[in-house]
Amino acid sequence: MKEIKVIIKSNLLEERKRKLNESLSSLSGIKDKNTLLEKYLITTSNLMNDGYTIEEIEASDIYNKMNSIDWKGVVGDSILNTAKEYIIKYVMQEVLGANATFSRMFAQFMANVNPLDLLKPFKDEQSCIQSFPQIADGILIVMFRSVAAGEIGADSNSYQIGLKDSLSAIAGNMVGQAIKESNISEKVSDIFCKAIH
Q: 3 vs 8, 9, 10, 11, CA distance in Å?
């Protein structure tokens, strides 16, 4: 029985490593540095969603290739947004413990926000009060969309034509607009900022 467990574990680890190598090796033929960075961030994000660790990804040959490139001047706006979404998603999942769907939705919502604005709430109370309402809007809207979609059995990140997905998108947009026009984010920000400063 013990030998069977060892064989199964060995096969699973081998399959895991094969999938990792297969996913990352598809990037090795990409010559354009912008495309390479964008595909790398997307691929590693997907791998992390599948349970791979940063250490496993960093042990790959493609990681060494990425580190050898001088990225100054190479990165364009679209790549910066992808990188920002990746970082926000990573922080939400790995640091704050949010699930993958919530993290993805929040990262997409916050992609238009200056990354420095995401740090301002932690600077001092005044900066927090000024900058956190926009972040609070994002958190509240994504929370509502995620919960509402779950209740009706829809994909909260879908923009398909199906009835459930359409209802989820319409309700999410209406509530999102109501949240932005209300002062709930300012009240949440006031409580949050006083708590951390």
A: 9, 10, 10, 12
